[in-house]
Structures are given as structure tokens and as C-alpha cells.
Amino acid sequence: MDLSNKVAIVTGSARGIGRAIALKLAEVGADIVVNDIAAAADALESTAAEIRALNRKALAVTADVSSPPDVARLIETAVSSLGRIDILVNNAGVTRDQLIMRMTDEDWDTVLNIDLKSAFLCTRAVLRYMMKQRWGRIISIASVVGIMGNAGQANYASAKAGVIGLTKSIAKEVGSRGITANAIAPGFIETRMTENLDEKQRQALVQRIPLGSIGTPRDVAEAVAFLASEEAKYITGQVLCVDGGMALG
User: Fold this and answer.
1) pTM above threshold 0.85
2) Is the dihedral of CA 181, 185, 189, 195 positive or negative?
3) Interhelix angle for 118-133 vs 154-174, to 10°?
4) H runs (alpha helix) in 134-240
């Protein structure tokens, strides 16, 4: 895979899966705009420094991608600094887990805004550049929870199911302009969330996974790099589960 002369924006890329995606895209030649909220500015700059160490350009932009003005600033900064946008990875996301009977309006709105609305806002903002180029890749990070549902995650499951529906709609709207749109649905991945699980909880999770192990951020990043590449030029509107077989049920 070769993404030389391409520019990618990866939202939520200070840590975890987003960081791994940004680094992988840089490894295969892309220049990267990394993004996260202001509270993660130090970690974001660290990610940018790692990308520069790979001899790729890196621009760190703090922005709340659920905010239309912040998204406009993010995209304008990317274009003015790096000249173009070829790849958008909608990765920013949060969880606010709670049983639906106890879930507050704030729990619902926060997750839907950050996990779903941000993908809409960022996609809408980059499309005019991609359409002029007649080339683009939009890759959104969904979740197996958006396919299967999960108790205590009605807000998160709804947002990720929305990401899948959004992806399929985008693919139909802009395919004629040389733009593909795909979603990746990770299963259980080694992140700060899974680090907090005790051994009993981890083993219960592993038993639900046919491959018998929890995935890594790099597993997701490799799939993103493929979907961003020319090798995936005839793939659009798809949901790729990176889950060790968990969504098989």
C-alpha cells in the first residue's frame, strides 16, 4: 500500500486506536492531520512528533469535532497548511454507559454528538474538496455494538449503528465522484477501557471471541490503511468487522 502525496485527517487521534491509525497511515506515506480535544493536547502533540519521526508531515489541531465552528476551523487549517484532503478517518468517540432506565439526557446527547454527529460534520466539510479532486476515502470507526446491540450501551449502540447508516448513504451519494465510504466495526480492542478490566472480566470477554484473544489498535489501523489505499478502490458502503469473529454470535 502506498499513500504517498495523500493527506489524511484522523479525528480522536491523541491516543489508542486513533493514534495507531495515524501512525499506520504515515508509515505508508501519508501526511497526517491529527486531532483531539484541548484536554488531550499534550498527547496529541506526542502523536504528531512520532509521525514527523517517520519523515512525514504532521499537523496537530485541537478541536471539538461535534462543534460545527470547530470542524470548519479544523478543515480550513488542514487545507491551508497541507493543501488538500484525501482521506478522512472519523474515529472520535466516547462512551457513557448506563442502563436505559437510568440513562440521562446528557448521557444520550453527549455520545450521539461525539460519536455520530461529528462523523456527519467532518464528512460534510471534506466532501467539497474530495469532489473537486474526484478522489477521496471516508472511513468511519463504528463498532460491533452498532450491529449486535449491548446492554448498558443504548446510546453508544445507537450512535454506531447511525455511523453505519451514514456510511452507506454517503457511499451512494458520492461514488460517482471517485469517493469511497466504508466503516470499520472493531470488537474488543486493547485500550484504556479494557486495561481497567480484571482477569475474570477479561476471560469472560475472550470466551465470546472465536479467535480467543482481544484485538490491538494496530489490527484496526491495518484495516483502515487498506480501505484508504488504491487496493480497495472497488470497495464502498461496506462494514468491515475487526473483531476476531465476535459479531458472528
Assistant:
1) yes
2) positive
3) 20
4) 145-148, 154-174, 192-195, 199-206, 217-228
- Rounded to whole angstroms, the Cα distance separating 181 from 242 reads 17
The arithmetic mean of pLDDT across residues 131-157, rounded, is: 97
Residue 144 phi, psi dihedral angles, 5° rounding: -60, -25
Complete domains list, the chain, with CATH: 7-241 (3.40.50.720)
Residue 141: left (phi > 0), alpha (psi -120 to 50), or beta? beta
Angle value at C-alpha 73, between 36 and 167, nearest 5 degrees:
65
Q: pLDDT tens for residues 50-98?
A: 999 999 999 999 999 999 999 999 999 999 999 999 999 999 999 999 9
Residue 55 region, left (φ>0) first, then alpha (ψ -120 to 50), else beta? left
Query: Per the structure block, which three cell numbers stand in for 114?
Result: 461525539
Q: Three cell numbers at 70?
A: 470547530
Place of cell 448521557: 107
**Inter-residue contact 63 to 35 (CB < 8 Å):** yes
Task: Mention every residue, 6+ apart, whose C-beta is less than 8 A from residue 173.
Answer: none
Note whether 47 and 34 are within 8 A (CB): yes
Count of H helices and E strands in the chain?
A: 10, 7
C-alpha distance across the termini of the chain, in Å: 32
Question: What does the alpha-carbon distance between residue 63 and residue 242 come to, in Å, rounded to a whole number?
Answer: 28
User: Is 156 considered catalytic here?
Assistant: yes
How far apart (Å, rounded) are the C-alpha atoms in residues 116 and 46? Answer: 26
Q: Which of 156, 167, 181, 219 is catalytic?
A: 156
Quote the CA–CA distance of 209 and 249 in Å, as a whole number.
9
